[in-house]
Every structure is written in C-alpha cells, then in structure tokens.
Design goal:
Layout (H helix, E strand, L loop, with lengths): L24 E7 L3 E8 L5 E8 L11
Antiparallel strand pairs: 1-2, 2-3
C-alpha cells in the first residue's frame, strides 16, 4: 500500500515496466565517462536482484582534412 495515496495499486505492472520487485533494497550506481551502471540489491538477503547499464552513444567526428 502506498503511504501517500492508498488507492495506488503497485501490483499491476505498467506496459513499460519489465520487472516488478516487491522487496526493499538499495541501488548501487557506478559511473564512467561513457556509462551508468545500476544494481538493485535486496536489503534482507544482500543478493543482486536486478541490474542495467546505460551507455552513452559516441559520435565519431572525422578529423581528416582533404
């Protein structure tokens, strides 16, 4: 049950949602100049439950001069 709005039902996944995890935990974030890495860790078991990486698309510019 949502604390601010008890009418919100989080058991129904939205069409854009790939994963539903009904556990408490925390997210570990690691960054580089080209990517963000997210890992969701279960607070009770300390097991990795989910992870994903966002990668920056590199735009290569041709510096060769004619």
């Amino acid at each position: 049950m949502h604390l601010l709005n008890p009418l919100i039902d989080y058991t129904q996944a939205a069409s854009w949602s790939l994963v539903r995890i009904k556990e408490f935990g925390y997210v570990k974030v690691q960054t580089t100049t080209t990517q963000l890495s997210f890992e969701f860790v279960n607070a009770n078991t300390r097991m990795l439950e989910d992870r994903f990486i966002i990668i920056k698309k590199l735009n290569h510019v041709n510096d060769a001069k004619d």
